[in-house]
Amino acid sequence: MESMEVFTDDRVRELRSKLEGSKRIVLTGHRGPDGDAVGACLALWNHLKENGIDSTVVMPDPYPEFIFWMNGHEDIVLHSDKPNLAEELVTQAEVLFVLDYNDSSRVGDLQSALDNTGAFTVMVDHHQMPSDFVDMMFSDSLSCSTCEMIYRLIEKWGEARVISKSTAECIYCGIMTDTGSFRFPSVTPRTHRIAASLLETGMDHSAIHSRVYDNNREGKLKLVGYAISEKLQVFPEFHAAIISLSAEELNRFGYKKGDTEGLVNTALSIEGVNFAAFIHESSERVKMSFRSVGEFSAREFSAKHFGGGGHHNAAGGASQDSLEDVLKKIVSLLPVYSKELNYPAP
After folding, report:
1. Helix (H) or strand (E) holding 230
2. What per-residue string of b and e applies to 65-84 under the rule 16 or more CB within 10 Å gives b?
3. Which domain holds residue 333?
4. Whether 199 and 287 share a structural domain
């Protein structure tokens, strides 16, 4: 099902007018940025630059190496590396974009600067239940990705036909990574029409897929193998599977950001499994990824028990508890949801 158009003519014109009259434009993504967050920021950064509008991308922390090839990534300001500069850019911005997140808590230590910015704030996001903390909101939970929404914004500006190859690559990567290479239920005919339009720029979709998925380090593959062979727990009576990794286990294989990308989907791919969780230690907290197929809401599970959020079938969360305690909590909750999880795979 495709959504109604959120990019109305009057608001799109107002936004463009503000951009053309501003000198300090900042584009922000969420903590632990993924392909969609980085892709959306750099797609808009590239497109604005090509149309004579300068902007700066600010991220809370590093992004995976598998997207280091995106044009403009080397100009991203990381709050984790340059906190003073990042906070100054955010607080002094005239226009600030909130891309691929819908609550200010999603930017971690950058939140205080975001909450105190004097900028005109613009949200472009596809997650459910957005917080009302921006001046202009483009929220569409039926869109497959924020990158798809960035394309629609550019299209509304009447500039889809002049999208550059660099911009197209960023948009395509975000759509590809957030849809599991176009296989998730969020993909619609419009998604494929947009992909077709991006291909017409001359971008190499096969090369993008290879850069993201077929460029593995030996340590990453060994980590994935270890996680599946030694740390995978399957609960057939509850149609669930869990993978957990400690900081020591991650470091043993020379872990780099992005190495465990997709691991939760591997657990979900097991026959008969309708709900999967991947949990791992990260800095001073435990991060969680939840996935489901069909009726069971990963988002509601994450929100109720871990204060997380996301989509119906894909969500995340974090906890200050120990890895062992988080694992025990998830396992203890499975019997509570035994009836809800007991259904044939779609």
Report:
1. helix 218-230
2. ebbeebbbbeebbbbeeeee
3. 218-337
4. no
